Amino acid sequence: MERRKQKAKLILEDESIYYGYSFGSKKMVAGEVVFNTGMVGYPESLTDPSYRGQILVLTYPLIGNYGVPGNEKNDNMLKYFESNKIQVQGLIISDYSDTYSHWNAKKSLSEWMIEHNIPGVYNVDTRELTKKLREKGTMLGKIVYDNKNIKLEDPNKRNLVAEVSIKKPILYRKGSKKVILIDCGVKNNIIKAFLKRNISVFRCPWDYNFLKEKVDGIVISNGPGDPKMCQDTIENVKIALSKNIPVLGICLGSQILALAAGANTYKLKYGHRSHNQPCVEVGTKRCYIASQNHGYAVDSDTLPEDWREWFYNNNDETNEGVIHISKPFFGAQFHPEASPGPDDTEFLFDMFLRAMKS
Fold first, then answer.
1. Model pTM?
2. Mean pLDDT, the chain, as a whole number?
């Protein structure tokens, strides 16, 4: 049975309007409008805490055709999702598939979004919308219905990390080696990457004073928004760097690591959100295809003398990683844990483990 179509629209800050039809919940929302060029992986992307405060545009035209998996748990985490709820403010797509087909699907995308009170708009010309975002850069926008309206707001002016981080520490006990994981909006697959390597994970809030904990390594996770909002994390990492404990930063974590070292960060025009970003390792001819989701970057020119750029993006030459010249401190702007996307760079976890054992 065909559902009754309700008109909806996305209004950008320049007052341009993109018309479509509603799916998911009927909530009106405002946020930062960003696009992702991945062809698959919407359950993982929608539950990625790095999308907090953002209205996500998927450029791949057919969405919903393989439904949404169930809420199975593994190691006390949802097996198929990157957090315990949908994190995006809203979803904008071209063609929504009512009929889904996948061996693991338990519900439709729209049903799942209704459960989490997340609105969506389909039948939007996402090609035209993405071209505008690429030309003008990331823009604020809102999803509204009929003549009702809400105020635009810039989510990056809030501490989004504080909104998605856990409130109390959690220990995932696995092996004798243990890492501190500073939860700035961590994806579940980062935790799983350490557990499958028999490493215990002490997951703590973003502003937790982890310096009193006895651990073999420190991991700064991915997360949403402006890294400069995480001053408590930056100050704690600064002190940790003086102790020579191995430190790994992932995505936002790499930016926080660079800020703690004394470098600067800045906002990208429209960010990197896809599964196919080419990252070149400096000093080699190696180019890795990486999964990414970030709107800020490290300014490589501001790195202190004992730090260097580790990777750069082959599309726009922005920084994709930092590394200390002699100590076990390094960070990657991309996601070595993938989910979704290629796992070409998963070797970073093994490199970190070797640094912990040396």
1. 0.96
2. 96
